[in-house]
Amino acid sequence: MITLLKRAFDFASRNALVSNGNTYTYGMLTHTSQSVASNLLGDRTDLHEARVAFLVPPSFEYTAVQWGIWGAGGIAVPLCVLHPLPSIQYVLKDTQAETVIAHSDFFDFLRPLEREIGISLVPLEKALTKNTAVLPDVAMDRRAMILYTSGTTSKPKGVVTTHANIEAQITTLVNAWEWEQDDYILNILPLHHVHGIINVMSCALWSGACCEFLPKFDAEKVWSVIASGRLTLFMAVPTIYYKLISFWEIASPEEQQRLSEAASKLRLMVSGSAALPVPVLEKWRSITGQTLLERYGMTEIGMGLSNSYREERRPGHVGLPLPGVEMRLVDTDNNPVGENQPGEFQIKGPSVFKEYWQKEEATQKAFTKDGWFITGDIGMLNDGLYKILGRDSVDIIKSGGYKISALEIEDVLRKHPSVNDCAVVGIPDEEWGETVSACLVSDAESIDFEKLSNWLKEHLPTYKIPRNYILRKELPRNVLGKVTKNDLKKFF
């Protein structure tokens, strides 16, 4: 039995999950997951890494199904409850999953795939039916989970992690962020992504802490939970903090004070999955007293770097490598770069994924000859802490011989009083290679772009000033709130 499940027996009487108005103990979780495992096994003694997909909203049942798949020796393939059918079909065909456990809300939605690609649909209620069987001994080097990347440059790839990878990802954060049994966290993040699965749910369950699910984000409900006083930690993406700030700003002064005091009592608040705009960090700090802890991670590595839990958390920076994580910053020839010099982050360590599912060539290209994972993210060491400049393929704009960080320009633009939010991209240009182009979100009906450019020249060198602007009501985003810049480019 894998360590995460073993540890749960030690916490049997403690509350593990709060879901749909019900509270579930660790004992209830282990018993239910054992039933799921037994039902999946049937007449078999071991699933031997068979892929089992499941489409279940964030809940106690989601966790029991995931643990049950692991307990039976299978590979868990979480599906996104917000994805359209073609995206689901792609994952099922790519993983060659024969079984899909489905919540009743999604059974009819998935029914066409039963005929089209020959999957076996299993109702969630059937998977949860009480059952007992002898479960296999699952080695730590076995494949445990396949999560799919966002596919910004090609079709999504299945990132395969072993049980040992997952344990390393969990224990690194438990130690760095000092998780304890008495911690209580709210999970409002999608559970087909490492942020929600590992950073929130699995770290809590490893520690004997309690995780409460809120399947759908609602700013009023989140503030209500914060105001209840039961949370000790909170983790979210920048878009959620932006929405929580917006809700706070329209509250009465008395309500603002009540919410601010409640938020100030949490021991840790974390932001990740997308770059945190400095103005959002500063505004959150001004209303709650909390300096959000920023960290850097990927589906392929779990978390790689983090600002300190106890020491300095510098806005716009992602801190230092986490314990057990080896990191280097290199140029295009894999030579180390010096301080204040841009380079690519490369990562080694036990948390790094095993492979891209059935994509041997892509896996080989993802690593250097001496075993470093090539992240594709560009950053620099700035006065002792690392800073992300952007993703080489999306956030680094190559214009007129310069390499320009889109994130740097975005941070400046958000300081303009007329700009609520923005995204900067490079648009192909015959003369310049790419031209810096900005999409702005504003309450104003129009913005004088010439005046805006003149204002920017007070803060940025001329070659970083956008040459193209568009004004929109919102930015295109994926389910984690990350701006999908390749979609955005089509609007120019």
From TrEMBL:
Gene3D superfamilies per the UniProt record, alphabetical: 3.30.300.30, N-terminal domain of ligase-like
UniProt cross-references to SUPFAM superfamilies, sorted A to Z: Acetyl-CoA synthetase-like
Residue intervals of the AMP-dependent synthetase/ligase domain: 10-357
CDD domains: MCS (cd05941)
GO molecular function: medium-chain fatty acid-CoA ligase activity
Protein's GO biological process: fatty acid metabolic process
AMP-binding enzyme C-terminal domain sequence ranges: 408-482
Similarity comment: family membership: Belongs to the ATP-dependent AMP-binding enzyme family.
Protein name: AMP-binding protein
Protein species of origin: Pelagihabitans pacificus
